[in-house]
Each structure stands twice: as C-alpha cells, then as structure tokens.
Amino acid sequence: FAATDPEAYETEIAGGRTFVDFRDLQQLLAMGLVKGGSLDAAAIIHDGAIICKEGLRYPNEIVRHKILDLIGDLYLCGRRVTGTVIAIKPGHSKNVELAGMLLREIAAMEAK
C-alpha cells in the first residue's frame, strides 16, 4: 500500500472494519467503549470464526483495519510521515508511542 495514492487508500484500506475478540466484548461493553457498535461496522472473532453481518469485505480485512489504525494514529503527529513503516503486531498504544517518538525527533531537529 502506497500512502501517496489516495485511490488505493480509499479502495484498499478505508473499508477495513474494526474487530474484537468475543472474550473481550463484554468488558468493552461494560466500560462503555462499544457505543454504536454493530455487526454492520465491526467483526467479532469467536473460536476462530469471524462473525459479521455481510461477511468479510476482504480476505485480510483485519490486517487492513490494523493499517487504517496505524495511519490514523500516526496522523496525530500533524506532519506528513515520509518513509516506510513496518509494523509487527501493531496496536493503538504502540502506534501512539511511535507517534510520540516521531514528535520528539521532529522537535529535536527543529531545535538545532
């Protein structure tokens, strides 16, 4: 996926729905973190099966959603990221940590 191609983003990444492991769903509901969630907008993983209203949009939709999360979290830098990002087991906390590291590097470069 090349982030410089807006059409590829729209057709390949933007449609990746969020997902949750069934075992985590009850806790997330209790914490009020699944507001407006439905099988239209999300997939539930349960005992190796993926449950969603229309089926997966792509065979690797979960990976595409992880890419979408990473793009959104790095957008918090407020700067265009030029380079290659390789993520292994990304998640919001790791993505935001990376964004913070980038911001510190930017600040250090600007201070020189």
Model description:
The protein has 112 residues and is mainly α. Helices cover 46% and strands 11% of the residues. The chain is built from 4 helices and 3 strands. The chain has helices at residues 6-13, 22-30, 61-75, 92-111; strands at residues 18-21, 42-46, 49-51. The protein has a 3-stranded mixed beta sheet with strand order 1-2-3. A hairpin with a 2-residue loop joins strand 2 and strand 3. Helix 3 (61-75) packs parallel to helix 4. The protein starts with 5 loop residues before the first helix and ends with a helix.
Which strand order spans the largest sheet, edge to edge or round the barrel?
Answer: 1-2-3
What about the largest sheet?
3 strands, mixed
Q: How many helical stretches?
A: 4
Q: Indicate the multimeric state.
A: single chain
Strand tally: 3
Rg result: 16 Å
Distance between the termini: 34 Å
Average residue-wise pLDDT:
87
The H/E string reads HEHEEHH
Dominant shape? globular
What is the beta-strand fraction?
5-15%
The percent range for helix content is: 40-55%
Structural class per helix/strand content?
A: mainly alpha
As residue ranges, the low-confidence spans are: none
